[in-house]
Specification:
Blueprint (H helix, E strand, L loop, with lengths): L1 H17 L16 E8 L5 E3 L16 H10 L6 E7 L4 E6 L4 E6 L5 H14 L1
Antiparallel strand pairs: 1-2, 1-3, 3-4, 4-5
Length: 129
């Protein structure tokens, strides 16, 4: 009887973990075949800080933020804060930069396999500034 109970509990746990919703803090599906955005801004004096989507007035439809989704969000509600960042995931790896004056998003595709080095460099810069 115990093995069936363990299998049932495991099945429920896996199904629960696979469900995704934008308001949910965690799910297995968030990291499987998804693309994440990591955005920051540089303030006066060279101080860098991480931005939340709400600060940019961007509301993604889910946990995924692709370059196409970011372009769509910027076109519908242009942010007033300049930012740069990385978009890393199954849809490719990108460096992004946005200037509110020109309302232009500049994207540069990162070389395959270099995304973790770019992310580590960005995190190091953020922790220093």
């Amino acid at each position: 009887m115990l093995p069936w109970l363990v299998l049932l509990a495991l099945g429920v746990f896996v199904v629960w973990g696979a469900m995704t919703r934008p308001t949910r803090p965690f799910s297995w599906g968030m990291y499987s075949g998804s693309t994440k955005g990591f955005l920051w801004t540089e303030e006066a004096g060279g101080v860098r800080r991480i931005l939340r989507y709400e600060q940019l007035r961007l509301t993604p439809d889910g946990h995924v933020l692709s370059v196409e989704e970011l372009r769509r969000l910027i076109e519908s509600t242009p942010p007033s804060i300049p930012f740069e960042g990385l978009i890393i995931g199954s849809g490719g790896h990108w460096s992004v930069a946005y200037e509110p004056g020109s309302r232009r998003l500049v994207t540069t595709r990162l070389a395959e396999g270099s995304e973790l080095a770019h992310l580590a460099t960005a995190l190091r810069r953020l922790s220093e500034g």
